[in-house]
Amino acid sequence: xxxxxxxxxxxxxxxxxxxxxxxxxxxxxxxxxxxxxxxxxxxxxxxxxxxxxxxxxxxxxxxxxxxxxxxxxxxxxxxxxxxxxxxxxxxxxxxxxxxxxxxxxxxxxxxxxxxxxxxxxxxxxxxxxxxxxxxxxxxxxxxxxxx
Length: 147
Prior knowledge:
With 147 residues, the chain is mainly α. The protein has one domain (20-124). Helices cover 48% and strands 0% of the residues. The longest helix has 17 residues, at 22-38.
């Protein structure tokens, strides 16, 4: 059996699901490599399986390192607007055997990730523009104490 080239596999994916730019797939693959290097290895020294939640955390760190304050803009330009999009990309890659999955892996693993504004924009806002917690409400003074 002949191995499918990267370009052929990507063409198959994009013919079936054109939502994401070619660069998004390359980035997710690089983000997976980054994540695997930053998490601990299994007891035998091999790189262990990465969960969806670990992957989106690793992708966030990797995106901030690679693109800084432009991370959200770059990802959105590639069609990636939320963590669930990373899951769609991963499962598209699984469908063409670029990645492997366990029986426990699902698209739902990428749900309820982070908000892109919080994850990619907030770290670069000046302190004065970052959300300031509301002050504690003080009890109202009674009329007899007012002068």
